[in-house]
Each structure stands twice: as structure tokens, then as C-alpha cells.
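Bench notes, afternoon.
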Amino acid sequence: MANRYYYQKQIPIKDAAILANLPSASYRRAWISRIYDHDGAADGEGGTVSWLALARAVGLDEGAVLSEGAIAPGTRFAVDAYVMFARTRPWIEAVASSLTELFGPPVMTARVAAIIEKYPWIDRSGLAYFQKRIPLAKRDAESALSWVLQEATTPDIERRCVDALRFKCDVLWCILDATALACGIFK
């Protein structure tokens, strides 16, 4: 949970890097909603706050999560690499890397059902992150995909977009591997 929190809190930073590189005001107006979704429009709002509520609901101490003391080095490295990717790569590649969200809504729906079934002791209010994120991920994926389909006009750009998506999948796998290692699942 703490490892994933580090990823969650870096998402708006990654999105701000992408926002800074977008080529038009219309794209920037659309993308900025992602930052508000995670950071909220005011204190106490947004996906990052909802993720902390989930951490509390599963019994973690919020202060311990916020201290980032339990973050695996592999998680920090992977997440920081993703933020750097968004800052330094062409905007179309950075946007393409976000297309993992295409798979998010069904995965999150299944995750919520599994949590409810397998962990009945978890306070349901802690699941608000997923319940709010499912429609937002669908919206975000659809807009990012439409931009990639519109702007990836050459085989080279198409290849770089696929490579960007592959990179993001590798980032997510690194987070999972680092978390599993830190939890003693791999020995």
C-alpha cells in the first residue's frame, strides 16, 4: 500500500510534466483535469487523499505511509523514472504511456469485488478511490487514445508510442516486483 502510495502521489507531478509539453491550449485544458482528479481542487480532495483513506481502511498508519519510509528502492526508482520519462520524452510518447488506463476500469472493478469478498473487515469507505477512479480512467484513456490515434501519423511515431506503453507496463511490473520483494514474497 505504501509503495503504491508513492506512485499515486507522483501521478499529478507526471501529469504536470506532460501538461507542460502539450502543443495546444485545448489539449492542456483537457489534460489538466487529471491533476485535479489526483490533487483535488481543495485540501482534503482528490485521488491521493482517497488513496490515504484506503491505507487507513486496511489498517495502515497514515503517518507511516506519508513518511515514505517503507517505500522499496525499486518502487522509488521505477516511479521516478516514469516522471522523468514524462518530462523528457515527446508529448505524444508521454501521453501514449498513460494508455495502461485502457485496462484500468475492468481491473479496478474486479479488484473492488475481490476486496469486498476476501477482506470484509476493510471499511468500505476506503474503496472510494477505486469507485471514483473507474469512470475517470475510462474518460482519460479514451481521450489519450484519440490523441495518439490522431497524432501518431508515421510508423516511427507509432513504434515510439508502443514502446512508451511498454515502458509504462515495465514501470508497473517493477513496482509489483519491488513490493513483493520488500514484503518477503520472493526469497
